[in-house]
Amino acid sequence: QKEVEQNSGPLSVPEGAIASLNCTYSDRGSQSFFWYRQYSGKSPELIMFIYSNGDKEDGRFTAQLNKASQYVSLLIRDSQPSDSATYLCAFGGTNKLIFGTGTLLAVQP
Amino acid sequence: DAGITQSPRHKVTETGTPVTLRCHQTENHRYMYWYRQDPGHGLRLIHYSYGVKDTDKGEVSDGYSVSRSKTEDFLLTLESATSSQTSVYFCAISEEVQGRTEAFFGQGTRLTVV
Fold first, then answer.
1. DSSP characters for B50-80?
2. Do A34 and B40 lie within an 8 Å CB cutoff?
3. What secondary structure letter does DSSP report for A6?
4. What is the pLDDT of residues A70-100, one digit of tens each?
5. Is A90 in Cβ contact with B40 (below 8 Å)?
6. What gap in Å lies between CA A76 and CA A17, rounded to an integer?
7. Residue A80: how many CA atoms within 13 Å on its side-chain side?
8. Which of A2, A6, A97 is most worth mutating to test chain B (most B CB atoms within 10 A of its CB)?
9. Tens-digit pLDDT profile for residues A6-44
10. Whose CB has fewer CB within 10 Å in chain A, the N or C terminal residue?
């Protein structure tokens, strides 16, 4: 079993809709979780982090964490074409971050 | 951009030749990492360093070596490049922010082995 599982997509949503990105992880000891956004040909950039069960909101982004189910998600409200990118989830391992394979999001104008 | 510079940004090399990629940081971060990114595999950790001359292997370390003789530089060497090592390589640093580890990435190096 991979340490982090993500659906590779593409996930296609219309402009203005809510995009829902999901990730499961295997390490029950993980304490910190991250979402990175990566535009084509660019390096990943950190957009959200969460380490407590529940929801964390930052602007149009909401991260949700359920440690019992080993599940973390990212919701993007009012999706814009500029949100089209690959979204990588990651969790904090010992001295390093473990990444998923990423989900490609395409927001259709 | 967390002061991370990778060089070169692009390189084409022949199978069997040695290749060294350089990662330079200006902010005295203790932890540095080399990842490779390939379609369908995401970011995979090659090696990381937790201080000068202190390094450890990641999940895909075969065929790679690293060195860190100064805090600011972390070198990744492909001893004898193979076509399977064609990839985009990212250097990253991490810093502790309020008890959690956050990683920041360099611009990436696109390596093609022909």
1. EETTEEEE-TT-TTEEEEEEETTEEEEEESS
2. no
3. E
4. 999 999 999 999 999 999 999 876 677 889 9
5. no
6. 8
7. 4
8. A97
9. 988 899 999 999 999 999 988 777 778 999 999 999 999
10. N
